[in-house]
Design goal:
single chain, 233 residues, Coagulation Factor XIII, Chain A, domain 1, 4-stranded mixed sheet, globular
Length: 233
């Protein structure tokens, strides 16, 4: 299974394309199995319609190209069964509150996952082994992130681990896993006010307006509404 990173920071287990490029990529030389060196794996703040696997500088990880500008050969990070529960690790180098969502999409070798395909295969949240976040019965695909004071620092950043359930109808020789980080430091999301955050996390409620619309490519600011008034500033 390939790992496809989307919007901020990086997946460390199993490794995302941008993280592999940071760890194993080369500045020069290399083979058909080497990415160009990535020096900012945490910088994929552009994604979505601009690139489902994230865009860093001039590199669009949807294209998945090696140092010769050719498609990378398949390099699955793990093998799973339909409906299996899996654990993923995420490293946050900058904490912007909010939650994660994970989606998958079966692809052909050299193929690109469409937004519609990824939307069709969301991974259901099961548990938070490290920090005890409960499942949100109203939004079962959300994985809420503990505040930085609760999180373990792994040197590169704070470690988060989630147990997720693969969709029962998902299968394929190659499957991309997309991680989407929806930040909540400038606006929050519907359902946050009623979610039972663990008491150990402290007071997680705030007076921020609701994120009404998210820029589809990651650029710009989300639309917001508060007391019925819509704002985009």
């Amino acid at each position: 299974m390939f790992i496809c990173s989307h919007l901020f920071q990086f997946l460390s287990e199993f490794r995302s394309r941008n993280f592999i490029a940071a760890q194993d990529g080369v500045w020069w030389g290399g083979t058909s199995s080497n990415y160009p060196k990535e020096d900012c794996p945490q910088c994929a703040s552009i994604g979505g319609t601009a690139g489902q696997c994230g865009v860093i500088g001039d590199t669009n990880y949807d294209e998945n190209l090696n140092v010769f500008g050719q498609p990378m050969p398949p390099a699955p990070q793990a093998n799973y069964a339909r409906g299996q529960e899996i654990e993923v690790d995420v490293i946050l180098t900058a904490h912007h509150k909010g939650h994660f969502e994970f989606h998958a999409c079966p692809i052909e070798q050299g193929g690109v996952a469409s937004g519609d395909c990824l939307t069709e295969y969301p991974l259901e949240f099961v548990s938070d082994p490290l920090y005890g976040a409960p499942k949100d019965i109203d939004y079962p695909y959300r994985a809420y992130i503990a505040p930085p004071g609760q999180a373990m620092n792994e040197g590169e950043g704070n470690l988060y681990r989630f147990r997720l359930k693969l969709p029962e109808n998902l299968s394929g020789e190659l499957v991309l896993l997309q991680w989407h980080y929806l930040t909540a430091n400038s606006c929050t999301f519907a359902g946050y006010s009623t979610y039972p955050f663990p008491a150990s996390w402290g007071n997680m409620q705030n007076s921020l307006s609701i994120c009404d619309s998210i820029p589809p490519g990651g650029g710009g600011l989300p639309g917001r509404f508060f007391d019925g008034v819509v704002s985009t500033s």
